[in-house]
Amino acid sequence: MVSNKGQGLSLTTIIVAALALIVLVVLVMVFTGRIGSFEKGLSNEGKVELVKMRVQYGDCAPTPSSELVFDQALSAAENTEAETTAKSDFFAEIDTCRGYSGDKAVCESNGCKWS
Question: Which residues of the chain have pLDDT under 50?
């Protein structure tokens, strides 16, 4: 008699492997979504600081490119000291521009924008 038995995976093993694969895919989707929202939250924190500083603007304010440089410096800060330095540098730029609030031409000629 010839035996028709061969080695193979049982149906239970195939089902367990398929379920494990589905769980793995779901976990990857969850964690990649969470990491994306975490990074988004970090970038929003820098924008909150910028909005707080915009309150101090006068008629003459720093340019959007200066704001972008500040936002990037704040995002790249690895410690409190670097954050403080980025904020103080931008405060100095705000103060400089506020000094030109009396005249639009002087404001714009000194690298600020008139609002």
Answer: none
